[in-house]
UniProtKB/TrEMBL annotation:
<dbReference type="InterPro" id="IPR029058">
    <property type="entry name" value="AB_hydrolase_fold"/>
</dbReference>
<dbReference type="Pfam" id="PF00561">
    <property type="entry name" value="Abhydrolase_1"/>
</dbReference>
<dbReference type="GO" id="GO:0016787">
    <property type="term" value="F:hydrolase activity"/>
</dbReference>
<dbReference type="InterPro" id="IPR050228">
    <property type="entry name" value="Carboxylesterase_BioH"/>
</dbReference>
<protein>
    <submittedName>
        <fullName>Hydrolase</fullName>
    </submittedName>
</protein>
<keyword id="KW-0378">Hydrolase</keyword>
<dbReference type="InterPro" id="IPR000073">
    <property type="entry name" value="AB_hydrolase_1"/>
</dbReference>
<dbReference type="InterPro" id="IPR000639">
    <property type="entry name" value="Epox_hydrolase-like"/>
</dbReference>
<feature type="domain" description="AB hydrolase-1">
    <location>
        <begin position="23"/>
        <end position="250"/>
    </location>
</feature>
Amino acid sequence: MNPPFGNGAKVFFDDVGPRDGTSVILIHGHPFNRTMWAPQTAALVSAGYRVITPDLRGYGESPVRPGKTLLADFADDLAALLARLDIEQVVVGGVSMGGQIAMEMRLRHPGLVRALVLSDTTAVPESAEARKARLETADRLIAEGMGPYAESVIDKMLAPYNVTGMPEAAARVTAMMRATDPEGAAAALRGRAECPDYRPVLAETAQPCLVVVGADDVYTPVAAAEALHALLPDSVLAVIERAGHLPGVEQPEAFNRVLLEFLAGL
């Protein structure tokens, strides 16, 4: 689809499903693109929802803006996209970095958010050690490209037993990582190094929230999801068995089931 202009960035996206259905925007994580949501999009559209899946700036088809991309920049891009589509309220869902962008949308554009879906993510700001690691990884991506990085993290993105047991899913995730422009991924990592503390805004979030986590996620483990669930006044927690950091990819049927159940209750 042709990208809109908003917030100074072009954003490519898919917009499918009935226009009179409840709108859901699904935000991919790093270093992926909008195609990661294909199983969820199909299930949601079949259930009558309108689904918007953007490529974040610097990812997928959306052009790169080298340097540093803050989570606030991503959130403002998506708010501009929704304004272009004349969508006044939307269920905002995201995985990992996408979950942080969803929280940033709740912070910066609260009127847009009808409900939140936070998958395998955290509201806690980066430690000094984590900030250093983000910046070092950004430099590494520029120097080495995405290939070595993809190989080093695939068994953390997916549970190790799914890397071997689900070769098609592993190949799909690896291909997405390899296809990402290093400049775009590095810009996002530099921005994430400055991730704010989202706990105060979440603690006062009245909108319903679904917190999802893979049972064997090593990046944002079940304890992190339980902390989010405890923080949010109106939330439900779903732990997806036999999944790591990307349960929507690893166990799409289980993920879709809890997502559709949550949406039906809105």
